[in-house]
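ENTRY TYPE: paired fold submission
RECORD: A
CONTENT: sequence, then structure tokens
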Amino acid sequence: MDEHIAQGQTQTHAQTLTLTQRFEEDRSHLRAVAYRMLGSLSEAEDALQDAWLRASRADISDVENLGGWLTTVVARVCLNMLRTRRTRGEDPLDEVTPDADTGPDQEEGRPDPEQEAVMADSVGHALLVVLDTLSPAERLAFVLHDMFAVPFDQIAPMIERTPATARQMASRARRRVKGGTTAPDPDLSRRRRVAEAFLAATREGNFEALVTLLHPDVVLRADKAVVPSPEPIFLGGAVTVAQAAMAAIGRARFTGVALINGTAGLTMAPYGRLRVALRFTFADDMITEIDVIAEPARLSELEIAVADV
């Protein structure tokens, strides 16, 4: 009896060592899955912590594909977090604070806002904005299949649907990402370059470059939720508008180019949640109007898509 107990303990210990090693080997991949599911690096780290605790308590003796199994564990945790977020209407904390260890060999501390911004840039702000509009099940189906090549027959049990339904969900999400309901601007490539230049100049604090992108008679309108202010804001003239853009350097790090109602614009989305949209009107390669939108009702009316041109 003692011999059998000892063998069982040895086997369990070996499984734990194997799981620990594989979790560390796959940590970057698992974090990438969690980040695309949640849109927040700090929340992704929370998901990895939860996934590690669940995985470390599980019997993996019959698991043949440990990497795929860990991906499934992380995806299920993220799905639960998304559903809770929808139910409670929660937003992530504005500040990221140190937290407990998230598994074996995890570095101390939590992601700071700069790390969040870099990660958002690497994935794409517009993509994160669109993903945030999807239902949790649609988001999981799209992220796992289109971004990580997980088969639908593995995705279906996670969302309690058939593989065919999971495929349909991913297809709907794909159409949202591409923005299929609004005809794209025929000069989208040129418009996108102007929007990218505007964002780069704002991030760099390059006032002169901003002025060259703006029509001399450019106008900027900002709704009451942008500052906030008791009345909408109206500014005119390239110099005045460029000065206003300089005041938004802090916001620019969480801003990216997006397709807004068919043409190039900018979306500010800290932690993957849309907060402000800039709709541009163009004449040739200059910006003639900027509509800054922050009121939730107005934001919800916009069709945001990935400007993949």
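RECORD: B
CONTENT: sequence, then structure tokens
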Amino acid sequence: ISVWTTLAALLGGMLAADVVLGVTPAYFFAALPRAVAISNLWLALGKSMVFGLSIALIGCHYGLRVKPNTESLGQGTTASVVTAITVVLLVDAVFAVVFKNVGL
């Protein structure tokens, strides 16, 4: 999914550049490698895999602790979502610090 969203973002950027700035699609794709290093794309793909794995593991952790009643299900779901959001934010901050010079 990360690859598709990256491609959709690039196509959206190309369309916006064409409509607003008059930049042709051919020039957009010719100038893209000079503007965005390929290492940034690989980093984005790696981050999405780490985030997906983290969210899946957190969901499984809390899901396996749910008791057979609806109250426990609601509490487990809430705790899972809050924990996953917090972990993604923290891991993203670590990525930002560790890879701050990528693509420069």
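NOTES ON RECORD B: Residues 58 and 83 are 7 Å apart (CA to CA). The chain is about 85% helix and 0% strand.
STATUS: closed
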